Amino acid sequence: MSYYINIINLETGEIMISMADKEIIGKKFEQRDGIVIDVDQNFYGSKLVDDEEALIYLKSADILILTGSKIVDMAIKEGIVNPDSVLEINGVKHVQVYKFAF
Q: Could you tell me the residue ranges of all domains in the chain?
């Protein structure tokens, strides 16, 4: 499987990664209640990664923004995302994660 990824080094020193399933890039998903997610390539990046590389990024990032059933399910399987935190927008999974360090 392939995912588009955008890696941003924040001024705080944290790494923010947005990742989306390849198949949904460029699409927009809406629900009747007004929730919309636009899977724009400008936000999710133009670099493609496979499962192995995606997993490395999932484990190393401080902030994650994930869209798509495949990438979200991988993050759940690896214990990075709590399934109760996942939104489904017109059938597409989306989650945002901030890893706190104490």
A: 2-98
